[in-house]
User: What shape does this take?
Amino acid sequence: MSAASRAAVRLGTEPSKATRWIILGIVGVVFSIPIIGLIEFSFRDGLGGGYTLDHWTGLFTEEAARTYRQLFQAIGNSAVLAVVTVAIVLLILLPTMILVHIQFPKLKRVLEFICIIPITVPAIVLVVGLAPVYSVVVSVFGSGVWTLAFAYGITVLPYAYRAIQSNLDAVPVVTLSEAARSLGASWPVVLWRVLLPNLRRGVLAAAFISVAVVLGEFTIASLLNRRNLQTALLQVGQSDPWVAAIFALLALLFVFLLLLLIGRLGSTRNRSSS
Amino acid sequence: MTNSIPTATTIAASLSAAAGADGATVELVGVVKDYGSHRALNAIDLAIRPGEFVALLGPSGCGKTTALRALSGLETINAGQIRIDGKDVAAIPTNQRDIGMVFQSYSLFPHMTALENVEFGLRMRKVAPTERRARAEEALEMVGLGTFAQRFAHQLSGGQQQRVALARALVTRPRVLLLDEPLSALDAKVRVQLRDEIRRIQTELGITTVFVTHDQEEALAVADRVAVMRDGVIEQIGTPEELYATPSSAFVADFVGLSNRIPGQLVAGVAEVHGARLELLGDPLPDGPVTAYVRPEDIVIADAGIPATVVASSFLGSLRRTQVVLQDDTLLSIQHEVDTRPQPGDAVFLRLKGAPVSAVPRS
Assistant: This one.
């Protein structure tokens, strides 16, 4: 039992087991209703009632591959976007955070503030600001879908920041890097051999949550006229609602597995004796 | 651990023989370090002989840790020179200074075993794997942790972690060993044990060592010379005996060992304290009222003399320390044989032995 929960027991504020299960139950039902609805819908045979597997099996025919080419392309786009966004997080945010933590601790507050801002700005507002920026981006990098990752790099900042920061706070980064320096390690070696292995959990969590955010992103892609998974789902949904429902389910399942993985990473202890 | 000491000693000797060199000289020349408007090191000078064990002692904020970090390169300096073996290293980054360092907080790499931790410095120096392993095992052996090679930091006690850190710092045979309050996180018994072991290993290896501490007992016990620091300068440097017997200032007298502050009068350069005439240590002072710093062992219980009342008395093993209060309400601490057992409330007489004292003017 953690110190916090022990303190809670003493104060008598911790909910009883029954209360906890009731809360969990209610929340679970609320969240599962739309998902169950989606599953049920994907098996429906038209509007007349009755159930069929046709919508699921239909996906794996050659004809479907042709019909939904755009959708598969969009899945590919989203995958590329996820990879580029994660790269931005790992190559720009992570080194910046470590640098601030070690060398410029006074800037920690500023960095935190900057990283949290995107969560307070609605996507639609962000797009209004981004539209003129993207006219420049297009002229420099071309109009490839992957350029959306620049915008996504900003939208994932709050999540990635928190994941990495909590790990940074839990590891004596300064002492470890000073010890490594005194033993003859250059800065790249300190980063690679000493800090990263100890920040693994935070970094992986940041990467996975970035992937989850990118796969669920609709507004920016739609308003900047790019095709990603979500915009394609909307399009397909207008002609074939069942297929859209199925893909939504699959995307949901994928992200769910990702989040489960983050949870596992968060709970596993450091490797013990070998 | 005691039975492992003979082996460990021989290993340390072989390590030092392998190093084939005595320690390096270390010099700080006019080193200045500013943090904004605060001057942490005020043109500090310090010369350390090869193989010497020097303690930097002082209250927190006196600049002792800054001096050590400047020496290690973890802190840049604003002016002055830092010479190791005569060469100015002020511009050389930490990782190229060839130093070994043990930190106050536990600094073992948590994702590596004790052995991997010790191997790290050798890995950085591109030592071949077999030799690396052998040397790391030898170093762990030296600190008495040969059987703990595969443990991770979280499976070791605080004292064991600091031992591994010491092995890690020494395995590369650095020119200088820097110890930044390595014992302050440990409990009293382990602290004394490890302190003596650090001194033993240091003597065996003959490595020049700088040890930062705020604990005067620790500094006096292990160091060849102690530098007492205050406000970014070295107030006095000398052997523990010198510092204790002839403090150059009231600050040193007060900081090193226990001292009683007794009001007195300075007449013709001699302090008159309760009828005793005590010679003055350090720089001469103008005549007038002073506060004299008198060691507890320089005051004895006598048949006649200064009347006092016992407040408390505590047994310290080989001696007894008694608190008494004078008629003018001055509280004194005196030290005497254990067979004298004053009880609180007893009326006693005190006599000053007449040892020279430090003093400061009293307003």
Notes: Residues 1-6, 16-20 of chain B have pLDDT under 50 and may be disordered.
